[in-house]
Amino acid sequence: xxxxxxxxxxxxxxxxxxxxxxxxxxxxxxxxxxxxxxxxxxxxxxxxxxxxxxxxxxxxxxxxxxxxxxxxxxxxxxxxxxxxxxxxxxxxxxxxxxxxxxxxxxxxxxxxxxxxxxxxxxxxxxxxxxxxxxxxxxxxxxxxxxxxxxxxxxxxxxxxxxxxxxxxxxxxxxxxxxxxxxxxxxxxxxxxxxxxxxxxxxxxxxxxxxxxxxxxxxxxxxxxxxxxxxxxxxxxxxxxxxxxxxxxxxxxxxxxxxxxxxxxxxxxxxxxxxxxxxxxxxxxxxxxxxxxxxxxxxxxxxxxxxxxxxxxxxxxxxxxxxxxxxxxxxxxxxxxxxxxxxxxxxxxxxxxxxxxxxxxxxxxxxxxxxxxxxxxxxxxxxxxxxxxxxxxxxxxxxxxxxxxxxxxxxxxxxxxxxxxxxxxxxxxxxxxxxxxxxxxxxxxxxxxxxxxxxxxxxxxxxxxxxxxxxxxxxxxxxxxxxxxxxxxxxxxxxxxxxxxxxxxxxxxxxxxxxxxxxxxxxxxxxxxxxxxxxxxxxxxx
Length: 541
Prior knowledge:
Blueprint: H1 14-28, H2 51-59, H3 64-94, H4 106-114, H5 121-134, E1 141-146, H6 152-165, E2 169-173, H7 177-190, E3 198-201, H8 207-219, E4 224-227, E5 241-247, H9 254-261, E6 268-273, H10 279-285, E7 290-294, E8 305-309, H11 314-326, E9 330-334, H12 349-360, E10 366-369, H13 375-387, E11 392-395, E12 408-414, H14 421-428, E13 439-443, H15 449-460, H16 464-475, H17 500-517, H18 520-531, H19 535-540
Parallel strand pairs: 1-6, 1-7, 2-4, 2-5, 3-4, 5-6, 8-13, 9-11, 9-12, 10-11, 12-13
């Protein structure tokens, strides 16, 4: 037969642990099922034995086939519990009475008429989801995920227009001052000619401007306030906040997001992310949120031509970049490090910046930006690049989110083997935002087979959702619960990548139990017994 082999520490022997497990299994025989009223046998494909038999079998299996059957059973129960916890969290959130908006009115019709383009199918679907949420009696909790450049900002603007025409104010919080200013400029264009007061609040707002802005906000003459973390400060008081939009929501902590929401009476909440989330993660991490996905790019947007090259082609790449800059276009150069390291043979941003501006691009204006720079200094450089005052920007991955420079057509990533798929795709999304053909050049020094596969996918796949699935496949399920610091408990039996069918079945079963015989108190007590201290993370994060 088979015997288990456990991880040991000093002073323990295999037979000691086996004996302890045997005793625990015998003691567990007298305990009832964790969740009363739930019949695991309904899913015969995954649940073919009582729970206790599954625990017995996975520790002391008569065969490898029986062991896998027990693992599937325990994986199903584990995922069922997790989905039930998400339903319980949603139940608590769902008790909040939301602001019931009326049907689309004059302002939204005028907004549509002013749009210089037609919405894509994905944008239309996403706003219909939001519209239905806002016209219900429960506070909206929706995540809109879309690839880089898919037009999430317009969808957010539509949602904010809807809350304004219903007599409430809206807020949009972005992670950086430059991204907030970018949204502000875009909103001024989108709402041009419409009677909507829009203001910007960041760390760069002067004391005098800030004082006037806060007075206008309380009086209600500001309808939409766009800003950074500055929005959550105590003296920022809204007259009637009805909708909170959080852009790049994973850049904010739970407390920061909730602090903004508390400035209104149960406002609707819309979260946006340009980091496509694999379906497995969506089902697991965001089971308590409604999710809308925008997969299409606006018509006319050209795919970014992507090439993985070796060090031997560096001079050719520089020649190509110089040719495009001569034509008036701009370039990004991204390095994995800020400064050179003795232990790692990688290009550093500061060294490369000095080399490029003194040797290869003497006639070009070069800039440098990295995470160690002061916030205002960093924003000043980014602003200069955005205005076209800088031809070539050397940076670390600090520029991966939110910068919109339509004239930038080359993303040259030096040391591409050091970046993950999702990060490479985000960086590539900084170019190709205008009508010009854009290029992404990935320079790597060798690397493992996994690295070569990652770069090959970058060359051939342009859809961020597909790349996100590939990325999760490469990184493995161990990354799941550290993702976005979501605080969910670790899985012991389930493999979130390979058990997607079990996950979907567990989600459906949990919903059926909740709808037919679900009792929040019973569910909460059962989950506390199952997860212990980590249950608080499941409910509160």
